[in-house]
Design a protein that fits this description.
six-stranded antiparallel sheet; alpha+beta; 17 strands; eleven-stranded mixed sheet; about 425 residues; single chain; 13 helices
Length: about 425
């Protein structure tokens, strides 16, 4: 960023910080000015409504039949009661104003504290591949291979393309190994992250570059590599004008994963043969027994000198997710930190479910990093979701990080990883607001 642009950005950040602090002060002063100390009681009412809603959600997920119906009714009634109380005292408008002020605090404060895109991963120059071999799944991502003419474009650039036949499943790892033996000097995949992981493992084993083509449904791996997820054909630019990144790979037993592996509740759900055709129905049918330990294995997690007994869910990721993205639905800022991210949830009752509102400060949520973790169970085999694929492994299950194992070839010009989402740090906001330069 140039000097003038940097100074302009500094001025904008200072005013964003002042706006956030001003909105926060207004959110404190306005209720006291309008309702006096009654506002404290109304604040307690609002928090109670949230807690009852969280507890109701727990009861709804962990029970079936009449209890589930009553739990949903309780959660809805609690929210309606809170709204009714504010309407009755003529202060519902205040709730709306507070929501607006809260939004201003969040957007202005986070914008002021935004940390930019973070340190960029090292890029390495490398000559274009002479014999690239690409595997493409025509059904992946709702038919992106055909919609973006990926096969034809890749072949025009000199790649050999293997188009998978959805009616006759093939071993993509074996296809990749055969291609390497035939002289392929780059492997690539246009498909889901599960397929990406299998072929990436072969590329890493043979120390040849790997090309990610964002033709899957969610493309989490492509997202964290900074690739264009809207137009997967842009990923093919790496064949002629690309650079290499060195990224880590996760391994569970002898299998590679590029995103994450899950144990417990989610893994049990995706094991169901009905999951693909009816996700919500399968979740509601499976979760009660899993959350109450009436079905599924009793897990024990060992990692980073910590032992966690009987968590309902464990997520182990190839590099940690950003703070606040704890469910594995968000982003990883780096893929080369050399550690696994580990998140476990242990909730046994409605009180602990309500406590999850505290986020990372909740006693039921554990987050750590480690180079290796082991998940044991009271059963000889445990179901695991590996990059979204339902698999089973003998226990204990060992997960490790393999630092800088994969050479990923990416286009020289690509969107990049979006900037970090900052946390609201009031001390930093204050310092920024009062600074002159």
């Amino acid at each position: 960023m140039s000097g003038d642009a940097g100074r302009q950005r500094g001025r904008v950040r200072r005013w964003e910080a002042r706006l956030a602090i001003g909105a926060a002060l207004a959110a404190v002063v306005l209720p006291l000015a309008v309702a006096g100390f009654k506002s404290l009681a109304l604040f307690a009412v609002g928090l109670s409504g949230l807690a009852i809603g969280a507890a109701g959600a727990w009861w709804a997920l962990s029970h079936r039949g009449p209890i589930r119906v009553l739990a949903v009714a309780l959660a809805a009634a609690a929210q309606a009661a809170v709204i009714g109380i504010f309407v009755a005292v003529g202060l519902f408008w205040l709730v709306l104003v507070m929501l607006v002020l809260g939004a201003v605090v969040c957007f202005a404060g986070l914008a002021a504290l935004a940390e930019g895109s973070g340190p960029a991963p090292a890029e390495y120059r490398a000559p274009p591949p002479r014999h690239p071999f690409l595997i493409m799944n025509p059904r992946s991502g709702g038919g992106k291979v055909g919609r973006f003419a990926l096969k034809e474009k890749a072949e025009t650039l000199g790649a050999k393309v293997m188009l998978l036949d959805p009616e006759h499943p093939q071993d993509v790892a074996e296809l990749a190994r055969d291609a390497v033996e035939s002289g392929a000097d780059l492997l690539g995949v246009a498909g889901g992250d599960g397929t990406q992981a299998l072929v990436a493992g072969v590329a890493a084993d043979h120390d040849i570059p790997f090309l990610v083509i964002s033709a899957g449904t969610r493309n989490h791996f492509a997202l964290d590599l900074g690739l264009d997820r809207e137009d997967p054909s842009t990923c093919l630019d790496a064949l002629t004008d690309g650079v290499e990144l060195r990224v880590d790979l996760g391994r569970i037993a002898e299998r590679t994963f590029v995103n994450n592996v899950s144990f417990g509740a989610y893994a049990q759900v995706v094991q169901s043969p009905d999951y693909r055709d009816g996700k919500i129905r399968t979740i509601l049918r499976t979760l009660p027994d899993v959350l109450t330990h009436h079905a599924g294995p009793r897990l024990t997690l060992h990692g980073a000198a910590a032992t966690i007994d009987a968590p309902q869910a464990v997520l182990v990721s190839n590099n940690p997710y950003r703070p606040g993205d704890r469910a594995g639905l968000g982003r990883r800022q780096r893929l080369d930190t050399g550690v696994l991210g580990v998140v476990s949830i242990n909730v046994d009752n409605a009180v602990q479910a309500a406590e999850l509102l505290r986020g990372t400060r909740s006693s039921g949520l554990t987050s750590l990093t480690a180079r290796e973790v082991t998940v044991d169970a009271d059963q000889p085999e445990v179901g695991v979701g590996v990059d979204g694929e339902a698999l089973s492994f003998p226990t204990p299950v060992r997960c490790v990080i393999v630092p800088r194992a994969l050479r990923v070839r990416v286009p020289r010009h690509r969107p990049g990883v979006p900037r970090l989402r900052a946390r609201l740090d009031w001390r930093r906001l204050r310092d920024l607001a009062v600074s002159r330069e």
